[in-house]
Design a protein that fits this description.
Blueprint lengths: L2 H9 L11 H9 L9 E5 L4 H14 L4 E4 L11 E3 L2 E2 L2 H14 L6 H15 L4 E5 L16 E4 L7 H4 L3 H8 L8 E4 L4 H13 L3 E4 L5 E4 L5 E4 L4 E5 L8 H18 L7 H10 L7 E4 L3 E5 L4 H13 L6 E5 L7 H8 L5 E4 L10 H11 L3 E3 L3 H11 L5 E5 L2 H15 L1
Parallel strand pairs: 1-5, 1-6, 2-5, 6-7, 7-8, 13-17, 14-15, 14-17, 15-16
Antiparallel strand pairs: 2-3, 3-4, 9-10, 10-11, 12-13
Helix pairs in contact: 2-5, 3-9, 3-10, 4-5, 7-8, 11-12, 12-13
Length: about 425
Protein backbone atom coordinates (compact mmCIF):
# COMPACT_ATOMS: atom_id res chain seq x y z
CA UNK A 1 0.00 0.00 0.00
CA UNK A 2 1.38 3.41 -0.97
CA UNK A 3 1.04 6.59 1.09
CA UNK A 4 -1.56 7.95 -1.34
CA UNK A 5 -3.54 4.71 -1.09
CA UNK A 6 -3.32 4.95 2.69
CA UNK A 7 -4.81 8.45 2.67
CA UNK A 8 -7.62 7.22 0.42
CA UNK A 9 -8.32 4.38 2.85
CA UNK A 10 -8.49 6.82 5.78
CA UNK A 11 -10.74 9.20 3.85
CA UNK A 12 -13.17 6.34 3.23
CA UNK A 13 -13.64 6.09 7.01
CA UNK A 14 -14.98 9.66 7.20
CA UNK A 15 -18.61 8.85 6.29
CA UNK A 16 -18.99 7.32 9.76
CA UNK A 17 -18.84 10.88 11.06
CA UNK A 18 -18.35 11.62 14.73
CA UNK A 19 -18.70 8.75 17.19
CA UNK A 20 -18.04 9.17 20.88
CA UNK A 21 -17.38 6.26 23.20
CA UNK A 22 -14.39 4.18 24.28
CA UNK A 23 -15.60 0.62 23.71
CA UNK A 24 -14.40 0.30 20.11
CA UNK A 25 -11.05 2.07 20.55
CA UNK A 26 -10.25 0.02 23.68
CA UNK A 27 -11.00 -3.22 21.84
CA UNK A 28 -8.81 -2.17 18.91
CA UNK A 29 -5.93 -1.12 21.16
CA UNK A 30 -6.20 -4.37 23.11
CA UNK A 31 -5.60 -6.32 19.91
CA UNK A 32 -2.61 -4.07 19.17
CA UNK A 33 -1.07 -4.86 22.57
CA UNK A 34 -2.24 -1.65 24.27
CA UNK A 35 0.43 0.69 22.86
CA UNK A 36 -1.16 3.61 24.73
CA UNK A 37 0.32 2.20 27.94
CA UNK A 38 3.90 2.29 26.63
CA UNK A 39 4.74 5.73 28.05
CA UNK A 40 3.39 8.46 30.35
CA UNK A 41 1.16 11.11 28.82
CA UNK A 42 -0.45 14.52 29.24
CA UNK A 43 -4.00 15.04 27.94
CA UNK A 44 -5.44 18.42 26.95
CA UNK A 45 -9.17 19.10 26.60
CA UNK A 46 -11.15 22.33 26.29
CA UNK A 47 -13.08 24.46 23.83
CA UNK A 48 -10.23 26.59 22.47
CA UNK A 49 -6.46 26.71 22.90
CA UNK A 50 -5.88 22.95 23.16
CA UNK A 51 -3.44 22.85 20.26
CA UNK A 52 -1.48 25.88 21.44
CA UNK A 53 -1.08 24.44 24.95
CA UNK A 54 -0.09 21.08 23.51
CA UNK A 55 2.50 22.62 21.17
CA UNK A 56 4.11 24.72 23.91
CA UNK A 57 4.12 21.81 26.37
CA UNK A 58 5.70 19.42 23.87
CA UNK A 59 8.30 21.99 22.83
CA UNK A 60 9.48 22.52 26.41
CA UNK A 61 9.66 18.78 27.06
CA UNK A 62 11.65 18.27 23.87
CA UNK A 63 13.99 21.13 24.81
CA UNK A 64 14.72 19.29 28.06
CA UNK A 65 15.88 16.27 26.08
CA UNK A 66 12.78 14.09 26.43
CA UNK A 67 11.69 12.25 23.30
CA UNK A 68 8.21 13.77 23.08
CA UNK A 69 5.26 12.64 20.99
CA UNK A 70 2.58 15.14 20.01
CA UNK A 71 -0.86 14.12 18.73
CA UNK A 72 -3.18 16.90 17.52
CA UNK A 73 -6.10 17.50 15.17
CA UNK A 74 -7.10 18.51 12.62
CA UNK A 75 -4.30 18.79 10.08
CA UNK A 76 -4.09 21.96 7.96
CA UNK A 77 -2.07 20.91 4.93
CA UNK A 78 -0.70 17.41 5.45
CA UNK A 79 -2.15 14.46 7.38
CA UNK A 80 1.24 13.76 8.93
CA UNK A 81 1.00 17.01 10.93
CA UNK A 82 -1.21 15.17 13.41
CA UNK A 83 1.51 12.82 14.66
CA UNK A 84 4.92 14.25 15.55
CA UNK A 85 7.97 13.45 17.64
CA UNK A 86 10.14 16.35 18.77
CA UNK A 87 8.49 18.52 16.13
CA UNK A 88 9.10 16.11 13.24
CA UNK A 89 6.07 14.74 11.41
CA UNK A 90 5.64 11.00 11.06
CA UNK A 91 7.27 9.87 7.80
CA UNK A 92 5.16 8.58 4.94
CA UNK A 93 6.75 5.15 5.31
CA UNK A 94 6.02 4.98 9.04
CA UNK A 95 2.45 6.19 8.48
CA UNK A 96 1.85 3.43 5.94
CA UNK A 97 3.40 0.80 8.23
CA UNK A 98 1.27 1.88 11.21
CA UNK A 99 -1.87 2.03 9.08
CA UNK A 100 -1.34 -1.49 7.79
CA UNK A 101 -0.81 -2.85 11.30
CA UNK A 102 -3.91 -1.12 12.65
CA UNK A 103 -5.96 -2.21 9.64
CA UNK A 104 -5.11 -5.86 10.29
CA UNK A 105 -6.37 -5.48 13.87
CA UNK A 106 -9.72 -3.94 12.93
CA UNK A 107 -12.66 -6.26 13.59
CA UNK A 108 -15.46 -3.87 14.48
CA UNK A 109 -16.24 -0.73 12.50
CA UNK A 110 -14.03 2.13 13.65
CA UNK A 111 -14.25 5.84 12.90
CA UNK A 112 -11.56 7.92 11.20
CA UNK A 113 -10.52 9.51 14.48
CA UNK A 114 -10.43 6.20 16.35
CA UNK A 115 -8.27 4.68 13.62
CA UNK A 116 -5.70 7.49 13.50
CA UNK A 117 -5.59 7.68 17.30
CA UNK A 118 -4.61 4.02 17.32
CA UNK A 119 -1.98 4.81 14.66
CA UNK A 120 -0.53 7.55 16.86
CA UNK A 121 -0.27 5.32 19.93
CA UNK A 122 1.33 2.56 17.86
CA UNK A 123 3.87 4.95 16.29
CA UNK A 124 4.83 6.41 19.65
CA UNK A 125 5.34 2.89 21.04
CA UNK A 126 7.48 1.84 18.08
CA UNK A 127 9.60 4.98 18.37
CA UNK A 128 10.09 4.46 22.12
CA UNK A 129 9.19 8.00 23.10
CA UNK A 130 9.56 9.18 26.69
CA UNK A 131 6.26 11.05 27.00
CA UNK A 132 3.21 11.86 24.86
CA UNK A 133 1.16 15.07 24.70
CA UNK A 134 -2.37 14.37 23.45
CA UNK A 135 -4.96 16.87 22.25
CA UNK A 136 -8.53 15.69 22.77
CA UNK A 137 -10.59 15.59 19.60
CA UNK A 138 -14.03 16.40 21.04
CA UNK A 139 -15.28 16.62 24.60
CA UNK A 140 -13.15 14.40 26.79
CA UNK A 141 -14.98 11.66 28.65
CA UNK A 142 -15.83 9.66 25.53
CA UNK A 143 -13.04 10.87 23.24
CA UNK A 144 -10.74 8.22 21.75
CA UNK A 145 -7.67 9.83 23.35
CA UNK A 146 -9.12 9.31 26.82
CA UNK A 147 -7.86 5.75 27.18
CA UNK A 148 -4.73 6.74 29.08
CA UNK A 149 -4.04 7.54 32.73
CA UNK A 150 -2.32 10.92 32.35
CA UNK A 151 0.30 12.49 34.55
CA UNK A 152 -1.59 15.77 34.17
CA UNK A 153 -4.98 16.65 32.65
CA UNK A 154 -5.70 20.10 31.22
CA UNK A 155 -9.05 21.75 30.52
CA UNK A 156 -8.20 24.99 28.78
CA UNK A 157 -11.58 26.72 28.86
CA UNK A 158 -15.21 25.85 28.28
CA UNK A 159 -17.88 27.46 26.14
CA UNK A 160 -20.82 26.13 24.18
CA UNK A 161 -19.84 23.89 21.27
CA UNK A 162 -20.94 20.61 19.68
CA UNK A 163 -24.09 20.78 21.78
CA UNK A 164 -25.66 17.83 19.98
CA UNK A 165 -22.85 15.66 21.39
CA UNK A 166 -21.72 17.35 24.60
CA UNK A 167 -24.89 18.90 26.02
CA UNK A 168 -26.74 22.19 25.81
CA UNK A 169 -25.49 23.80 29.03
CA UNK A 170 -22.04 24.81 30.21
CA UNK A 171 -22.40 22.44 33.14
CA UNK A 172 -23.11 19.47 30.88
CA UNK A 173 -20.19 20.35 28.62
CA UNK A 174 -17.92 20.79 31.65
CA UNK A 175 -18.91 17.33 32.85
CA UNK A 176 -17.97 15.82 29.49
CA UNK A 177 -14.62 17.60 29.32
CA UNK A 178 -13.98 16.83 32.98
CA UNK A 179 -13.94 13.17 32.03
CA UNK A 180 -10.20 13.51 31.33
CA UNK A 181 -9.62 13.98 35.07
CA UNK A 182 -8.55 10.65 36.56
CA UNK A 183 -8.53 9.22 40.07
CA UNK A 184 -5.75 10.75 42.16
CA UNK A 185 -4.71 12.93 39.23
CA UNK A 186 -4.04 16.59 38.60
CA UNK A 187 -6.17 19.02 36.59
CA UNK A 188 -5.09 22.46 35.39
CA UNK A 189 -7.70 24.83 33.96
CA UNK A 190 -8.11 28.36 32.67
CA UNK A 191 -11.91 28.17 32.93
CA UNK A 192 -13.37 31.04 34.92
CA UNK A 193 -17.16 30.61 34.96
CA UNK A 194 -18.32 29.79 38.52
CA UNK A 195 -20.74 27.12 37.26
CA UNK A 196 -17.97 25.41 35.27
CA UNK A 197 -15.47 25.56 38.12
CA UNK A 198 -18.08 24.10 40.45
CA UNK A 199 -18.48 21.09 38.14
CA UNK A 200 -14.73 20.61 37.79
CA UNK A 201 -14.20 20.96 41.55
CA UNK A 202 -16.89 18.36 42.15
CA UNK A 203 -15.24 15.91 39.76
CA UNK A 204 -11.84 16.48 41.39
CA UNK A 205 -13.29 16.01 44.87
CA UNK A 206 -15.01 12.79 43.82
CA UNK A 207 -11.80 11.46 42.25
CA UNK A 208 -9.44 12.81 44.92
CA UNK A 209 -7.67 14.84 42.24
CA UNK A 210 -5.94 18.20 42.60
CA UNK A 211 -7.47 21.23 40.84
CA UNK A 212 -5.25 24.18 39.93
CA UNK A 213 -6.90 27.29 38.47
CA UNK A 214 -5.36 30.01 36.36
CA UNK A 215 -5.65 33.27 38.26
CA UNK A 216 -5.72 31.47 41.60
CA UNK A 217 -3.01 28.85 42.13
CA UNK A 218 -0.95 30.05 39.15
CA UNK A 219 -0.95 33.19 37.02
CA UNK A 220 0.90 35.33 34.48
CA UNK A 221 1.83 38.99 34.75
CA UNK A 222 2.31 40.90 31.50
CA UNK A 223 5.19 43.36 31.40
CA UNK A 224 5.36 46.54 29.33
CA UNK A 225 7.96 45.21 26.90
CA UNK A 226 5.81 42.27 25.81
CA UNK A 227 7.52 39.82 28.14
CA UNK A 228 5.67 38.19 31.00
CA UNK A 229 6.29 36.59 34.36
CA UNK A 230 4.86 33.30 35.56
CA UNK A 231 3.95 32.78 39.20
CA UNK A 232 3.33 29.10 39.50
CA UNK A 233 2.26 26.49 41.98
CA UNK A 234 5.83 25.81 43.05
CA UNK A 235 8.02 27.74 40.59
CA UNK A 236 8.30 31.28 39.29
CA UNK A 237 9.84 32.57 36.04
CA UNK A 238 10.57 36.12 34.93
CA UNK A 239 11.16 37.57 31.49
CA UNK A 240 9.40 34.91 29.45
CA UNK A 241 8.24 35.49 25.87
CA UNK A 242 5.07 34.00 24.41
CA UNK A 243 5.73 32.62 20.91
CA UNK A 244 2.16 33.13 19.63
CA UNK A 245 0.18 36.26 18.74
CA UNK A 246 -2.75 37.42 20.86
CA UNK A 247 -3.28 38.31 24.50
CA UNK A 248 -5.27 35.08 24.98
CA UNK A 249 -2.10 33.09 24.36
CA UNK A 250 -0.77 34.16 27.77
CA UNK A 251 -3.41 31.91 29.35
CA UNK A 252 -2.33 29.05 27.09
CA UNK A 253 1.34 29.67 27.96
CA UNK A 254 0.46 29.65 31.65
CA UNK A 255 -1.28 26.30 31.28
CA UNK A 256 1.70 24.84 29.43
CA UNK A 257 4.07 26.11 32.11
CA UNK A 258 1.78 24.65 34.75
CA UNK A 259 1.88 21.29 33.00
CA UNK A 260 5.67 21.33 32.90
CA UNK A 261 5.79 22.24 36.56
CA UNK A 262 3.37 19.53 37.69
CA UNK A 263 4.70 16.78 35.40
CA UNK A 264 8.06 17.20 37.14
CA UNK A 265 6.36 17.06 40.51
CA UNK A 266 4.39 13.89 39.75
CA UNK A 267 7.44 12.21 38.24
CA UNK A 268 10.83 13.67 39.16
CA UNK A 269 12.28 12.04 36.06
CA UNK A 270 10.45 14.65 33.98
CA UNK A 271 11.85 17.72 35.73
CA UNK A 272 12.50 20.46 33.14
CA UNK A 273 15.33 22.93 33.90
CA UNK A 274 14.66 26.65 33.52
CA UNK A 275 16.90 26.97 30.48
CA UNK A 276 14.81 24.36 28.65
CA UNK A 277 11.59 26.08 29.74
CA UNK A 278 12.74 29.36 28.21
CA UNK A 279 14.16 27.84 25.04
CA UNK A 280 11.28 25.42 24.49
CA UNK A 281 8.61 28.06 25.04
CA UNK A 282 10.34 30.49 22.71
CA UNK A 283 10.78 27.88 19.98
CA UNK A 284 7.20 26.55 20.05
CA UNK A 285 5.29 26.59 16.77
CA UNK A 286 1.58 26.19 16.09
CA UNK A 287 -0.01 26.89 12.75
CA UNK A 288 -3.33 28.41 11.78
CA UNK A 289 -4.13 30.33 14.95
CA UNK A 290 -3.49 34.05 14.48
CA UNK A 291 -0.58 32.96 12.31
CA UNK A 292 1.11 35.72 10.34
CA UNK A 293 2.03 34.50 6.86
CA UNK A 294 3.47 37.67 5.36
CA UNK A 295 4.00 41.41 5.54
CA UNK A 296 3.18 44.39 3.32
CA UNK A 297 0.35 43.67 3.29
CA UNK A 298 0.23 41.69 6.50
CA UNK A 299 -1.57 38.37 6.07
CA UNK A 300 -2.95 36.57 9.12
CA UNK A 301 -4.90 33.31 9.20
CA UNK A 302 -7.03 32.06 12.07
CA UNK A 303 -9.14 28.92 12.33
CA UNK A 304 -11.72 30.34 14.76
CA UNK A 305 -15.02 28.57 14.19
CA UNK A 306 -16.96 28.89 17.45
CA UNK A 307 -18.19 31.70 19.68
CA UNK A 308 -15.19 31.88 21.99
CA UNK A 309 -12.70 31.61 19.13
CA UNK A 310 -14.37 34.36 17.12
CA UNK A 311 -14.49 36.63 20.17
CA UNK A 312 -10.75 36.09 20.65
CA UNK A 313 -10.06 36.82 16.98
CA UNK A 314 -12.10 40.05 17.15
CA UNK A 315 -10.17 41.22 20.20
CA UNK A 316 -6.88 40.47 18.47
CA UNK A 317 -7.90 42.36 15.31
CA UNK A 318 -8.77 45.39 17.43
CA UNK A 319 -5.88 45.29 19.89
CA UNK A 320 -2.94 43.34 18.43
CA UNK A 321 -2.77 44.44 14.78
CA UNK A 322 -2.28 47.86 13.21
CA UNK A 323 -3.56 48.50 9.70
CA UNK A 324 -5.26 50.99 7.41
CA UNK A 325 -8.02 48.70 6.14
CA UNK A 326 -9.07 45.15 6.97
CA UNK A 327 -9.80 42.77 4.10
CA UNK A 328 -11.56 39.67 5.39
CA UNK A 329 -11.53 36.37 3.46
CA UNK A 330 -14.21 34.28 5.13
CA UNK A 331 -15.44 30.73 4.65
CA UNK A 332 -17.40 28.54 7.05
CA UNK A 333 -18.94 25.10 7.38
CA UNK A 334 -22.68 24.76 7.29
CA UNK A 335 -22.93 23.16 10.75
CA UNK A 336 -21.33 26.16 12.47
CA UNK A 337 -23.08 29.24 13.88
CA UNK A 338 -22.23 31.34 10.83
CA UNK A 339 -24.77 34.07 11.68
CA UNK A 340 -23.02 34.74 14.99
CA UNK A 341 -19.63 34.69 13.30
CA UNK A 342 -20.72 37.19 10.65
CA UNK A 343 -22.35 39.44 13.23
CA UNK A 344 -19.10 39.74 15.20
CA UNK A 345 -16.49 39.74 12.45
CA UNK A 346 -18.01 41.50 9.46
CA UNK A 347 -18.49 44.98 11.03
CA UNK A 348 -14.72 45.11 11.61
CA UNK A 349 -13.88 44.62 7.92
CA UNK A 350 -13.66 47.22 5.17
CA UNK A 351 -13.93 44.59 2.42
CA UNK A 352 -15.31 41.06 2.74
CA UNK A 353 -14.65 38.18 0.35
CA UNK A 354 -16.82 35.12 0.99
CA UNK A 355 -15.42 31.84 -0.24
CA UNK A 356 -15.96 28.10 0.15
CA UNK A 357 -13.69 25.92 2.32
CA UNK A 358 -12.59 22.69 0.62
CA UNK A 359 -14.96 20.47 2.60
CA UNK A 360 -18.20 18.74 1.74
CA UNK A 361 -19.76 20.35 4.81
CA UNK A 362 -18.99 23.87 3.56
CA UNK A 363 -21.84 26.37 3.70
CA UNK A 364 -23.60 27.10 0.43
CA UNK A 365 -22.51 30.61 -0.54
CA UNK A 366 -25.77 31.64 -2.15
CA UNK A 367 -27.62 30.74 1.02
CA UNK A 368 -25.08 32.62 3.13
CA UNK A 369 -25.03 35.87 1.14
CA UNK A 370 -28.33 37.28 2.49
CA UNK A 371 -27.14 36.60 6.05
CA UNK A 372 -23.74 38.16 5.35
CA UNK A 373 -25.34 41.30 3.91
CA UNK A 374 -27.09 41.95 7.23
CA UNK A 375 -23.77 42.53 8.99
CA UNK A 376 -21.34 43.87 6.38
CA UNK A 377 -20.91 45.98 3.29
CA UNK A 378 -18.59 45.72 0.28
CA UNK A 379 -19.11 41.97 0.07
CA UNK A 380 -18.20 39.80 -2.89
CA UNK A 381 -18.49 36.04 -3.42
CA UNK A 382 -15.63 34.02 -4.91
CA UNK A 383 -16.06 30.25 -4.81
CA UNK A 384 -12.38 29.34 -5.09
CA UNK A 385 -10.22 30.05 -2.00
CA UNK A 386 -7.21 30.61 -4.25
CA UNK A 387 -9.05 33.20 -6.34
CA UNK A 388 -10.35 34.80 -3.15
CA UNK A 389 -6.78 35.18 -1.88
CA UNK A 390 -5.63 36.66 -5.18
CA UNK A 391 -8.50 39.16 -5.09
CA UNK A 392 -7.55 40.12 -1.53
CA UNK A 393 -3.99 40.87 -2.67
CA UNK A 394 -5.34 42.87 -5.61
CA UNK A 395 -7.43 45.02 -3.25
CA UNK A 396 -4.81 45.45 -0.52
CA UNK A 397 -2.20 48.13 -0.11
CA UNK A 398 0.96 47.42 1.85
CA UNK A 399 -0.41 49.01 5.04
CA UNK A 400 -3.59 46.88 4.98
CA UNK A 401 -4.34 43.60 6.77
CA UNK A 402 -5.68 40.50 5.01
CA UNK A 403 -7.37 38.18 7.50
CA UNK A 404 -8.46 34.66 6.53
CA UNK A 405 -10.92 33.14 9.01
CA UNK A 406 -13.95 30.95 9.57
CA UNK A 407 -12.62 27.42 9.17
CA UNK A 408 -9.42 25.45 9.66
CA UNK A 409 -10.15 23.80 6.31
CA UNK A 410 -10.06 27.24 4.68
CA UNK A 411 -6.91 28.20 6.58
CA UNK A 412 -5.14 25.07 5.39
CA UNK A 413 -6.11 25.71 1.78
CA UNK A 414 -5.06 29.36 1.93
CA UNK A 415 -1.72 28.40 3.48
CA UNK A 416 -1.07 26.11 0.52
CA UNK A 417 -2.10 28.83 -1.93
CA UNK A 418 -0.02 31.43 -0.15
CA UNK A 419 3.04 29.18 -0.15
CA UNK A 420 2.55 28.74 -3.88
CA UNK A 421 2.43 32.50 -4.34
CA UNK A 422 5.63 32.93 -2.37
CA UNK A 423 7.55 30.19 -4.23
Amino acid sequence: MTYTESLSYLKALNPMGIRLGLEQIKALLERLGNPQDACPAVIIAGTNGKGSVAAMTASMLSAAGFRTGLYTSPDLIEFRERIRIDGEMISQQAAVACLQTVKKSVVETVSYFEFITAMAFLYFQRQKIDIAVLEVGMGGRQDATNVINPLVSVITNISREHEEYLGSTLEQIACEKGGVIKSGGICLTAARQPSVLKVLAGICQEKNAGLYRLGKEFRTILKGDGAFSYRGIRKNYKGLTCPFTGAHQLANAALALGVIEMVGEVNAGFAVPEEAVRRGLGDAKWEGRLEVLGRSPEVVVDGAHNSAGVATLCRALVNDFHYRKLILVFGVLGDKNYRMMAKRLFPLADRIIITRPPCERALDLEAFLPVASEFGENIEVIQSPGEALRQAFFLARKEDLICVAGSLYLVGEIKKMYQGKQS
